[in-house]
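Subject — a protein and its fold
Fields — amino acid sequence, structure tokens
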Amino acid sequence: MVSVFHKCAAALNSTDRILISFWIFLACVSLAFCARIPHWPLLILSNLGAILITFTLAGISQSTGSKWLRISHDWSAFVLVFFTFKQTHYMIGPIHGGRDFDPLLIAADRWLLGTDPTVWLARFSHPGLTELLQIAYTLFYAYFIIVGVELYRKPGRRAFSHFRFTVVCGFLFSYIGYFFLPAAGPRFSLHDFSKIDSELPGILLTSILRRFVNFFESIPADVPNSIAQAAAQRDVFPSGHTMLTLMVIIIAYRYRLRVRHLIFLAGLLLIAATVYLRYHYLIDLIAGTVLALLCLATSKKLHAGFRKASEPER
């Protein structure tokens, strides 16, 4: 049994290891705040389950030599990081006793600009523009796949390994930010969420795509603003969409990928959409930009450190 564990541990790549480290951290946080977090035993078990799945997938993909298991292992981090995002929803609110920091973020925007950006931008709204920006925003995760696939085809997959590790680090950095300053966002605090389809209409897909995004953020459909706000993920500060999109753009140009210009244009639209569509305050974008640069500057050393225990990278 011990030898099996060692074989599985040896098969872990650097991204597996940083995810496992973060799940252990979340389990410790759940235990430390167990008096406030109602579902803390389930959260700890979920993290243990994710660790077990990662160990098992790494081990069997290496021992069997299966191409499809290897591919599953190589890409599993992008699914598991979403699992990590979802569990923070059940921790952040209870830890802070339901307190949100939207007033602080609103005050920061007003200090910077003298107004609320989402309110100011409403005067320029147009159904065609709304439709375009909603599509760009909803395709957020597709950009990682597009860049990742091109990098995955490169010989040795070292570039893909670094890309995967850097992107996962970016997500985890943003999740830590949510713990410190949980906020629901301007679509709830400065606007009436239940009226967004009438106040900011699109053409054909906007309403459908909004519901799609809301579903993955745990927001029920056709409910009053207060109910939607209570259910929403506290994932506003920093703007993970801005942070990760900037990172993907920079990485695409760093490796001179064929899709870099497409990613650049789509990424700029997505970043504009975060404020225009009322998902974020401007200060969230500023924080996301700073963290993107910090993550890109430190990921190489972090990656090297985690790789020491996980060579050879595939």
About this structure: The radius of gyration is 20 Å. The CA atoms of residues 119 and 190 lie 8 Å apart. The first helix runs from residue 2 to 11.
